[in-house]
Design brief:
179 residues, mainly alpha, Cyclin A, domain 1, 2 domains, elongated
Amino acid sequence: MASALGLPDNVRETASVIYRRALDEDLLPGRSIEGVSTASLYAAARQAGTPRSLDEIAGVSRVEKDEIARTYRYVVRELKLEIQPADPESYVPRFASDLGLSDEAERRARSLLDTAKEQGIHSGKSPVGLAAAAVYAASLLVNEKVTQSEVSEVANISEVTIRNRYHELLEAEDSVALN
């Protein structure tokens, strides 16, 4: 699964350490081995700052998204893992690269996300959705046109989500420009 997601070896190692700890702490009864191993990989990727969305993880696993999320929360809680919320900026380089965008577009996307954080509009929003919208907005701002459909495909998120976050990002940007 780690290979299919393009995750580095250190994430795979961390995932196996988390899995072995779950095994040692007797967390497996009542849960599938595949569910716990998938949740361990998801946790390891987030710890390493190379997060993948639950949809991406579920796409390479034989476990349903809901079970992965439930098992992930259980493992994190029981093993007292320190995991920061996913930062939308950590998704930007991969999305920009997959869409063939320039460094300038990537920088602009990061700038939009910084403004969103300052304005507090990121709270409670999907980091994947925010990153996808920032990449889409940035591509337009630097005249490297990509479609919402292309961004939706790369980020595995709906065009509606991209549109909604896109408008919020631009409103935040406008309110900063006015002040």
